[in-house]
Fold:
Amino acid sequence: MSMWDRLRKGTQTVSEKSGELLEMAQTRAAIAKLETEKIRRFTELGELTYRVYSREDVPDAEMERVCDEIRELDRELEAHRERLEGDTLVCPGCSRPVKPEARYCSECGQSLRPVRP
Structure:
């Protein structure tokens, strides 16, 4: 292997590693954003619960909506955390875990095949 081949291979390795680090940083930022949103939803749920306790009229649909949003945030957080651990593949469209052999996401239908330039 020539010096130029080794240099090219080293440059490629550095490029791949920096891409991995960037993806990890983006995933961590997404986790922080989702955790902040989850705190907002818990606060909203707490306010609704207090209104119920105070005998104010709170529609069940409103409480159900907030609980559903919290469950969705939990699913997204789990997918991002798994991505950081590298245990599973996730859909680039909806961030849900997908099986390695899957061609399409079972949740949103996005193609999981790499796009060729």
Residues 3-53 form the longest helix (51 residues).
